[in-house]
Automatic annotation (TrEMBL):
Species of origin: Planoprotostelium fungivorum
Keywords of this entry: Oxidoreductase, Thiamine pyrophosphate
PANTHER family the record matches: 2-OXOADIPATE DEHYDROGENASE COMPLEX COMPONENT E1, 2-OXOGLUTARATE DEHYDROGENASE
Molecular functions (GO terms): oxidoreductase activity, acting on the aldehyde or oxo group of donors, disulfide as acceptor; thiamine pyrophosphate binding
Swiss-Prot/TrEMBL cofactor(s): thiamine diphosphate
Keyword RNA-binding annotated: no
Family: Belongs to the alpha-ketoglutarate dehydrogenase family.
Highest rank taxon of the organism: Eukaryota
Protein name: Oxoglutarate dehydrogenase
SUPFAM superfamilies the UniProt entry points to: Thiamin diphosphate-binding fold (THDP-binding) (SSF52518)
Pfam families found in the cross-reference section: E1_dh, OxoGdeHyase_C, Transket_pyr
Gene3D superfamilies with a match to the protein in the record: 3.40.50.12470, 3.40.50.970, Multifunctional 2-oxoglutarate metabolism enzyme, C-terminal domain (3.40.50.11610), TPP helical domain (1.10.287.1150)
Residues of the Transketolase-like pyrimidine-binding domain: 574-777
């Protein structure tokens, strides 16, 4: 029997009677001989012991059958042992006494008669044990200060591996030096907190006191990673203990923290940025772990708890892609607060990505820094689950719970978790349960709301005192040891405090091979030549619809997509989807990668894109553009998540400036599910952290009768978040926008806009109000010459029909409504009207608008026309700007204000539209 079948067979033997075993064995052999199971079984091999790695012998099977009730009891402990575990230093977590943890439940007595352990349980160096001894071993394994939950996991190999890991080594084998190292790390943490208290008593530091062992736990994770050959770890965490870790384990020079704590800025002089608060600082360092060097990055985070989770994951995925890694080199680690971990939806969305082919990172190690409180909220009000870690069950993540006052068990849990990820490439959660010695921050009084626990906490020796006492009893340290380590750390901090200075421009930013050729944007309003040779564009168009031989394309696509594209190229009428493909293809040719992710992006919500084509006879997929190379196009259909996926793509874009990263909404309306990512990363990541992103957000937008939630990408909100100066339009800062917002009407412009994202020496996020009906409009087409060499993005498209001399009225329109108004103008043969299309809203195209206004000397009426309601669309953004540029009063013609984004029925929409058109041409 192949080895892979054997491990699983242990499980059969655990669950079936002796008579059933041979039959089941045969069946399992068939089931597990397939390839994916083979992989699992390969993974289990390394840590397998007698119980799981060998095919049970006849005598083992007999033994298991004979001792079936003992086996049931062992399984009872694996499943329910955690309910009796000693996990909470404060005793707030009530233990539960369930019958399944008593031998009587299994008709077992406390006889001293020895039970043969063969095939049942691994007790180190024991072949047999009495029932009391077995119970004692199980209690040590599952009911001590560390426990695990894994019996609900769908993969039997994982269950078997976990049982073995937890049961075979109930006492922690740390040597004296390792124990001292754990204590040192905890002392370092506490010393930092005390130092900050002494020097900056009024600064909120969100200290780690009560959870110092989590720092040692993280160190154990990193050491274990390094030992496994991992070269890069990307970490995300919230405020709690962040400064402690930065100044200690993560090697940020403490003076950076002190400098900022004094009220100074972390942003070097001459750099355009506003900076961020102390507890959001990030760090990247190469750290030596027992002789193995590893790049460790703690990414910057916003205050919105957990929002950085998908960002870190996207960054990890991007780095893995760059390094062609499957998760053996680059690892994601997330530290969570207990309240946020259970409360924030983005956690669920991020977990949801963990096993998806286009997003997985080979498992994330989650450490819950569980201080059993969220600001002032106790767990009974803060979550509906027993454990903060329970959310991990969503993805079958094993859970380890550990008492923070047992540092050695914390280390053991963290090591098991790291080994699990390495072996099974899955998410795993370590729930480190401690407390918070002070208030939410150090200026807050916690006993206003939690008087009982804080009487306990305040009278409690610290975890360091407890552990130091243990090590002293063990003869590992003497009475002076703690003070010596403290004094050493204090003098390090003191020296750093004395040498604090302003960061220089060479610090951190735009360094490293990926970013060294980039700088801060100097003038985003300057045209960027993005045209491409016509021959190459023709070639790309051909390749974009070329299928491998034998590929059976859907008949409607053959005609409506492939032939249509080829014919359109011949007729020189490039539509939207073709322009997009030409942009992608030309970038691939130039060596950039392109990643487009979102719901149904391969085909496109509106069935227009079809960059991924599906063989009708076997379901195989091809991406024809990938024949172009050297870059690679990665269209990834996502889970039904916005915050998770958008955050992920943002993280990807920050890691890979030479990948055109695109997130597309199903409809623009749904982007607000990711509002936190937009507000706290995309619009201001560079300004807060000097981290540039070239992420493109495509938001199908447009009023076409589809009603609320299918009509608006909420351009007004993006424009409100633009840092363009509306008062002083000539302000130089307007050339350095925080991001771009465009509402293009031509395929040429989408082509140039996408290419511009990659061909500049800076990166800016780009928000596109994208088309829906325009995708199939015969009018929204461009000529090849508009995409060819010498061409570029046109921020403002003037009127080529109107005679400037006759124009009395200038109408500014942004977006696809232009085509409706233009059609009506022609129908009514209106000659005194010019329509100016504002394609790029931010940065505001000042010069181009000025020259349009100057063109119509005889114009007396200037209007903004939009089909969005007055409280949406571009009106509120354009009004203060255009008003300064046009003579007389700027008028608004559009829908009246509306509480919803659009009216809810088609006929009403039509009536409104007709009425609006009448007003425009009244
Ligand atoms: C999304 C979000 N909502 C609310 C807050 C305000 N807030 C800051 S810390 C905190 C409590 C967090 O508790 P927990 O996650 O347990 O972390 P702890 O501070 O206890 O370490 C709250 C509610 C926030 N920062 N982010």
């Amino acid at each position: 029997m192949p080895e892979e079948s054997r491990n699983n067979e242990t499980e059969i033997c655990n669950h079936f009677t002796k008579q059933e075993v041979p039959k089941r064995r045969k069946m399992m052999h068939r089931v597990f001989s397939n390839v994916s199971q083979r992989r699992y079984c390969y993974l289990t091999r390394r840590y397998s012991t007698s119980i799981h790695s060998h095919e049970p012998t006849a005598s083992q099977l007999n033994n298991m059958s004979k001792n079936a009730n003992v086996l049931r009891m062992i399984e009872g402990f694996r499943k329910y042992g955690h309910l009796q575990a000693d996990l909470d230093p404060l005793g707030l977590l009530t233990k539960q006494n369930v019958p399944q943890l008593h031998p009587s439940y299994y008709c077992l007595n406390d006889s001293q008669e020895k039970v043969d352990l063969d095939g049942l349980l691994a007790i180190p160096s024991q072949r047999s044990a009495s029932i009391p001894d077995i119970i004692s071993h199980l209690q040590k394994s599952y009911c001590g200060s560390m426990t695990a939950q894994f019996t609900g996991i769908g993969d039997p190999a994982v269950q078997a591996w976990f049982a073995e890991r937890v049961e075979s080594a109930p006492s922690t084998p740390l040597n004296a030096d390792e124990k001292k190292k754990v204590l040192d790390r905890m002392i370092q943490c506490e010393t930092f907190d005390h130092f900050m208290q002494k020097k900056f008593g009024s600064v909120k530091r969100y200290g780690m006191e009560g959870l110092e062992s989590a720092a040692a736990g993280l160190e154990a994770v990193l050491e274990e990673c390094a030992a496994e050959g991992v070269t890069d770890v990307i970490i995300t965490m919230a405020h709690r203990g962040r400064l402690n870790l930065l100044a200690g384990l993560l090697q940020l020079p403490p003076d950076r923290i002190f400098w900022k704590s004094k009220g100074n800025s972390e942003i070097p002089e001459g750099v355009h940025a506003v900076g961020d608060v102390l507890s959001h600082l990030g760090q990247s360092a190469t750290i030596d772990f027992n002789g193995k060097k590893m790049n460790v990055t703690l990414i910057q985070n916003p205050s919105h708890l957990e929002a950085a989770d998908p960002v870190a994951m996207g960054k990890v995925r991007a780095r893995q892609t760059r390094m062609k890694d499957d998760g053996s080199k680059v690892v994601c680690v997330m530290l969570h607060g207990d309240a946020a971990f259970t409360g924030q939806g983005v956690v669920t969305e991020t977990f949801g990505l963990s096993k998806l082919a286009g997003y997985r990172v080979g498992g994330t190690i989650h450490l819950v820094c569980n201080n059993q409180i969220g600001f002032t909220t106790s767990p009974e009000n803060g979550r509906s689950t027993r454990y903060a870690a329970d959310i991990g069950k969503l993805v079958d993540a094993p859970l380890l719970h550990v008492n923070a006052e047992s540092p050695e068990e914390v280390i053991k849990s963290c090591k098991i978790a790291t080994q699990y990820r390495e072996k099974f490439r899955g998410d795993v959660v370590v729930d480190i349960i401690g407390y918070r010695r002070h208030g939410h921050n150090e200026l807050d009084e916690p006993s206003f709301t939690q008087p009982g626990p804080y009487v306990n906490i305040r009278s409690r020796p610290t975890a360091i005192q407890l552990y130091a006492k243990q090590l002293q009893t063990e003869g590992i340290i003497d009475a002076e040891y703690v003070n010596q380590i403290k004094a050493k750390e204090e003098s390090r901090l003191d020296a750093s405090f004395k040498s604090m200075k302003q960061p220089t421009s060479s610090d951190d930013h735009f360094k490293g091979d990926r970013w060294s050729s980039f700088k801060q944007c100097q003038d985003a309003t300057a045209p960027v030549p993005t045209g491409v040779k016509a021959e190459l564009l023709n070639e790309i168009a051909q390749v974009s619809v070329q299928l491998p031989s034998g590929f059976e394309i859907h008949s409607r696509l053959q005609k409506g997509f492939i032939q249509a594209r080829l014919e359109a190229m011949k007729k020189d009428q490039i539509d939207w989807a073709t322009a997009e493909s030409l942009a992608f293809g030309s970038l691939l040719k130039e060596g950039y990668d392109v990643r487009i992710s979102g719901q149904d992006v391969g085909r496109g919500t509106f069935s227009h894109r079809h960059v991924t084509l599906v063989d009708q006879k076997n379901g195989k997929k091809v991406i024809p553009l990938n024949e172009l190379g050297p870059g690679r196009l990665e269209p990834v259909n996502s889970s039904l998540s916005e915050a998770g996926v958008m955050g992920f793509e943002y993280g990807y874009s920050v890691e890979c400036p030479k990948t055109l990263c695109i997130w597309e909404a199903q409809f623009g309306d749904f982007a607000n599910s990711a509002q936190i990512i937009i507000d706290t990363f995309i619009t201001c990541g560079e300004s807060k952290w000097l981290k540039q992103s070239g992420l493109v957000i495509m938001l199908p937008h447009g009023y076409d009768g589809a009603g609320p939630e299918h009509s608006s990408g909420r351009v007004e909100r993006f424009l409100q978040m633009s840092d363009n100066d509306a008062v002083d339009l000539h302000n130089e800062r307007n050339k350095r926008p925080n991001f771009r917002v465009i509402n293009p009407t031509t395929p040429a412009n989408i082509f140039h806009a996408l290419r511009r994202q990659m061909t500049t020496d800076y990166r800016l996020p780009l928000i596109i109000m994208g088309p829906k009906t325009l995708l199939r409009s015969a009018k929204a087409v461009s000529k090849l010459s508009e995409l060819s060499e010498g061409s570029h993005f046109t921020p403002v498209i003037g009127d080529s029909q109107a005679d400037p001399q006759s124009v009395k009225r200038v109408v500014f329109i942004s977006g696809k409504y232009y085509y409706d108004v233009e059609q009506e103008r022609q129908k009514r043969d209106v000659r005194d009207m010019a329509i100016v299309r504002i394609e790029e809203l931010a940065p505001f195209p000042l010069k181009e608008i000025q020259s349009q206004v100057a063109k119509y000397k005889g114009a007396t009426t200037f209007q903004v026309v939009q089909d969005e309601p007055q409280n949406s669309g571009a009106w509120m953004y354009l009004q203060p700007r255009l008003s300064q540029l046009v003579p007389g009063q700027l008028q608004y013609i559009g829908r009246p204000p509306c509480a919803a984004t659009a009216v809810g029925n088609g006929p009403e929409h039509k009536r409104e539209s007709a009425e609006l058109m009448e007003r425009i041409f009244a």
